[in-house]
């Protein structure tokens, strides 16, 4: 019987594994916090002062130096993300991530411990469904 954890192969440069196994790859530390929100921009939502667009706000906690990643995707609206600290100061905004024309993404290091607020909205006053992903990972 073959040992599924033991490589068999032709030489040191070519390995062939036989049997059941799993493989996991990661480009960094696993998120300490990961949330996914399915939302809808619609009349009755918060109206943003920057341009009178509709928005939904979400809060989360992060520690100084942690990596915050925010992603908003939608096939209905041209997404727009804004991140604020606990005092309401704008830390970052994004209209269109480079690789995706209508989706938004923010990556930023938390400047301090605290509660942060992300507002999911649209570039223009659009209504529709969206998905928001919030991830906070150790430095």
Task: Describe this entry's structure for a reader.
By secondary structure, this protein is mainly beta. The chain has one domain (31-137): Jelly Rolls, CATH 2.60.120. The protein contains no helices and eleven strands. It has strands at 8-11, 14-16, 33-41, 46-47, 54-62, 67-73, 79-84, 90-94, 104-109, 114-122, 128-137. The strands form three sheets. A five-stranded antiparallel sheet has the order 4-5-10-7-8, with no helix packed on it. A four-stranded antiparallel sheet has the order 3-11-6-9, with no helix packed on it. It starts with 7 loop residues before the first strand and ends with a strand. Residues 1-7, 9-17 and 21-25 have low confidence and may be disordered.
Strand content: over 45%
Task: Name the helicity range.
Answer: under 10%
What's the number of domains? 1
What is the CATH class name? Mainly Beta
H/E series: EEEEEEEEEEE
pLDDT < 50 runs, ≥5 residues: 1-7, 9-17, 21-25
Number of helices: 0
Going by CATH, the architecture would be Sandwich
Strand order of the largest sheet: 4-5-10-7-8
Topology, number of strands = 11
Q: From the alpha-carbon coordinates, what is the Rg to the nearest angstrom?
A: 21 Å
**CATH topology, what is it called?**
Jelly Rolls
Structural class: mainly beta
Compact overview of the structure:
The chain is built from no helices and 11 strands.
Write the topology of this structure.
Layout (H helix, E strand, L loop, with lengths): L7 E4 L2 E3 L16 E9 L4 E2 L6 E9 L4 E7 L5 E6 L5 E5 L9 E6 L4 E9 L5 E10 L2
Antiparallel strand pairs: 1-2, 3-11, 4-5, 5-10, 6-9, 6-11, 7-8, 7-10
């Amino acid at each position: 019987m073959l040992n599924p954890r033991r490589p068999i192969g032709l030489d040191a440069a070519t390995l062939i594994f036989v049997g059941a196994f799993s493989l996991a790859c990661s480009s960094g530390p696993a998120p300490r916090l990961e949330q996914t929100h399915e939302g809808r921009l619609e009349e009755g939502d918060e109206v943003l002062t920057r341009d009178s667009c509709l928005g939904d706000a979400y809060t989360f906690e992060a520690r100084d130096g942690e990596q915050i990643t925010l992603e908003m995707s939608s096939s209905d609206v041209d997404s727009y993300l804004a991140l604020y600290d606990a005092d309401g100061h704008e830390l970052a905004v994004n209209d269109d991530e480079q690789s995706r024309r209508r989706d938004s993404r923010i990556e930023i290091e938390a400047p301090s411990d605290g509660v942060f607020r992300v507002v999911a909205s649209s570039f223009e006053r659009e209504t529709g469904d969206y998905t928001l992903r919030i991830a906070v990972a150790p430095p």
